[in-house]
Amino acid sequence: MSNSLIIYSSTDGHTKTICERIINFSNDVNKVKIISLNEAAKFNLSEFDKIIIGASIRYGKHSRELYKFIKLNKCILDRKDSVFFSVNVVARKPEKNTPDTNPYVKKFLKISKWSPKKIGVFAGKVDYPKYGFFDKYIIKLIMFITKGPTDTSQSYEFTDWSKVDVFSKELWLNS
């Protein structure tokens, strides 16, 4: 088993939860380190054989910090067994839940010019009760426009955990 690093960029914590689920499928969880994108600059990526990056979408974009990180580390990522997955609510729709059909994944890969060895996309979560006033009502508007749930007293998790599990098993298959 090689050393693996999982880096997450999460707005509300759901991407981190998915990363923690992915670790559970590793043959040796002691050889997998999970860190936030903010912590990643402190690590030498060359020391890891597999690098997995999971990132969420907020208001239609991956974070600027994610793009900066990829740009700074693209050469290393290209040499490694690198993996990327995006977590976004648009992926709740069957016609937008694959790397080839998800607009955010396609845009991210085009802008970053990174070609991970494996790519995934998972539907995220809308947790209205956790949001502040501004986020709650902007997200409600977006959900209204995209025919999603708008009851702000509720949380809505769209993640297909069986899809996460299949992706996770494939990640660790040859490790």
Largest sheet: 5 strands, parallel
Number of strands: 7
Identify low-pLDDT runs: none
Number of domains: 2
Could you give the order of the helices and strands? EHEHEHEHEEHEH
The CATH class of the largest domain is identified as Alpha Beta
Instruction: Give me the CATH fold name of the largest domain.
Output: Rossmann fold
Notable characteristics:
two-stranded antiparallel sheet; alpha/beta; 2 domains; 175 residues; Rossmann fold; five-stranded parallel β-sheet
SSE diagram, text form:
Blueprint: E1 4-9, H1 14-23, E2 32-36, H2 37-40, E3 50-56, H3 64-79, E4 81-88, H4 103-112, E5 118-123, E6 125-127, H5 133-145, E7 155-157, H6 161-172
Parallel strand pairs: 1-2, 1-3, 3-4, 4-5
Antiparallel strand pairs: 6-7
Architecture overview:
By secondary structure, this protein is an alpha/beta fold. It folds into two domains: 4-124 and 159-172, Rossmann fold (3-Layer(aba) Sandwich), CATH 3.40.50; 126-158, no CATH class. The protein is 37% helix and 22% strand. The protein contains six helices and seven strands; from the N terminus they run βαβαβαβαββαβα. The chain has helices at 14-23, 37-40, 64-79, 103-112, 133-145, 161-172; strands spanning 4-9, 32-36, 50-56, 81-88, 118-123, 125-127, 155-157. The strands form two sheets. It has a five-stranded parallel β-sheet, with helices on both faces. Helix 3 (64-79) links the parallel strand 3 and strand 4 (81-88). Helix 1 crosses helix 6 (161-172). The protein is globular, with a radius of gyration of 16 Å. It starts with a strand and ends with a helix. The mean pLDDT is 94.
